Amino acid sequence: MKIPFTKMQGAGNDYVYIDCFETSVESLPDIANLSRRISDRHFGVGSDGLVLIMPSDNGSNVRMRMFNSDGSEAQMCGNASRCVARYAYDNHLINSKQLTLQTQAGNKQIEIQDDSLITVNMGNPVVIAEHETLKIDDEKYDYTAVSMGNPHCVIFVDDVKNFPVEIVGKKIEVHPNFPERTNVEFVKIIDNQHLEMRVWERGAGETLACGTGACATAVAAILNGFSDRETNIQLLGGCLKIHWSVVDNCVYMTGGAEKVFDGVFDYI
Fold first, then answer.
1. Which pLDDT does position 114 carry in this prediction?
2. Is residue 115 scored above 90 in pLDDT?
3. Which residues contact 95 (CB under 8 A, 6 or more apart)?
4. Per the CB 3.0–4.6 Å rule, which of 26, 49, 145, 215 could disulfide with 251?
């Protein structure tokens, strides 16, 4: 089966996107297996996962389903949501620069700005644990747990560049404190308006960026007194601007979204 796709990236968080306005979901093979195969960076297209751009079934403009590179389905991806908005507008699935995106974590309001940046209202954060400690290999880590529709464990460190993210992140992802597994953010405070972050994504490993993770990180930094309500978060793949509003308690994420290339995946 030949499957048309578009590869896009937001702050280096790259996914393969399938337009299910053109290719019906019912015609696709096992989606979990398709995500694993198409995401493989040696034998597939190469990506952090697979995103289906679909007609909405709840009155929104567009619907998104997102699968990690291990085939598991995730509730939400902030960087992917910006890419879906960019794709939908550029390919005339929508006519307005303001849209409502249906996700597994609820509807998200998105605005495509004139400078090509895209702002997503990520909704209200849910603080699961503000000050908790877990133990990995005889080391104790203080963390703040925040849900942005998906789970995040935020840990502040002194040296994020040399931190063993793969070793520690992999173990925290499956720690008993997180029965549904968790994303893990390792964060260095630069100043009250600048943070530096690396992320271990649940089901994908370390990625260049995570939009929901950046939002969770900003919330955790504010709760711990490290950051202002507006902050810039530097990720391996780029910078995201995060604003946790005192007016509506919503977290707003602003960043870019770029098309990389179109192609056809030959699923055998």
1. 85
2. no
3. none
4. 215
Q: Which is nearest to 201 in space by CA: 37, 34, 12?
A: 12
The four Cα atoms 178, 179, 183, 188 give a dihedral, to 10 degrees, of: 10
- pLDDT for residue 244 is more than 90: yes
CA 167/CA 241 separation, integer angstroms: 28
Q: Would you name the residues annotated as active-site residues?
A: 77, 210
Q: Are strands 251-255 and 118-121 parallel, antiparallel or unpaired?
A: antiparallel
Round to whole Å and give the CA distance between 66 and 162.
Answer: 30
pLDDT at 116 over 90: no
Spell out the alpha helix ranges (H) of 144-267.
Answer: 165-173, 211-223
**DSSP state for residue 25 in the 8-state scheme:** G
Instruction: Read off the amino acid at residue 264.
Output: V
Spatial distance between the Cα atoms of 225 and 39, rounded to a whole number of angstroms: 38
Task: Give the span between the Cα atoms of 105 and 50, in whole angstroms.
Answer: 17
Q: What is the DSSP letter of 85?
A: H
Residues in the chain: 268
